[in-house]
Design a protein that fits this description.
Elements (H helix, E strand, L loop, with lengths): L1 H18 L5 H31 L4 H9 L1 H17 L6 H35 L10 H30 L3 H12 L1 H11 L1 H16 L7 E4 L2 E8 L3 E6 L4 E5 L2 H4 L3 E2 L7 E9 L5 H14 L8 E8 L4 E9 L2 H22 L32
Antiparallel strand pairs: 1-2, 1-5, 2-3, 3-4, 6-8, 7-8
Helix pairs in contact: 2-3, 2-4, 3-5, 4-5, 5-6, 6-9, 11-12
Amino acid sequence: MWQDFIHQVNAAFATLAAAVSFAPPWAVTVIVLVAATAVAWIIHAATLALLGRLLGARRPYLRSVLDQTRNPARLGFLLIAMAIALQTAPLGADTRAFLSRLLGLGVICLIGWMALTALRIAANLYLLRFQVGTADNLMARKHVTQVRVLQRVAEVVIVLVTAGFALMTFSEVRQFGVTLFASAGVAGLVAGLAARPLMSNFLAGVQIAIAQPIRIDDAVIVENEWGNVEEITFTYVVLRLWDLRRMVVPISYFIEKPFQNWTRTGGELIGSVMLYVDHTTPVDAVRKKLIEIAAQSKLWNGKVVNLQVTDCKETTIELRALVSADNSGTVSDLRAEVREKLIEFLQREHPHALPRRRNEISEAGAIKTTERPAMPPQDGS
């Protein structure tokens, strides 16, 4: 069907070229190309109207793809029509071959562009159901991470396939590919060594998308730096540190090396506050004050609050206060609030509980000495 249609269009352009053959060759070429442009414009408009009527509002994804790729599709129709019309234009064989190859490259690039657009629209429409900004966002972070990582992997594949098809239009490249396949042993070894970092990151990205050791907005500790996962790309991960710095880590790091993920199974966290106080501190009063502080705080989620004596040293005892919050940012603010108010409470109500250093001074005359018994007299004394 399509071949018959193309033959009919080609015959129409040939008829047009014959009808204006009295004009100079360059003028005939311009007339044929202008006619091809008009035909392509009309066919594209008719196709767009027909597809729009068929889809309506029942297929939001296809409708979005149709709207977003309107201009690339129109340009593709124009290039295809020009490539068909060039076969009937009064041009030299070399010129016609060069222009046909150029138009073919344009069509291949446009198809790749449209494929990337369709992929991006599909990812965005799917993620509309998930909001990372909510308090309980574990499910949202899981899907966002999976979709974004797989999207970037698919984008790389589409670009490589598009570039491969574009290069294969050149006979020299095709011959090089045949030669490369003929010597697959050496070529495979060289290519494997050269592409090892690329393939390592590629496979790490696929593993992270499936297993998800990290997700978007996870709170992690990497190389003794605490931050949130801000972006996961094809080759690296960007961490937003607590002081707004950005730490860029290779994506393979999260497969090959250990790290801490505070929000692996949920956003809820327990924060600890360490206090070092005197041995005479009324622990029960401090515990009651901690419960009061947590109950009055808007950051506490009402689940965990506790105070324990976790160590006893020569000069101080160690108190550990535990409080829980819904996410890492909230638990950090809650820890600071609890720490400040407990210190204020001790300063105001129990100043003697603050750490002190004790020194005992004794008078020289009060030093006790132990008397030794007298030795028995020796003979001949």
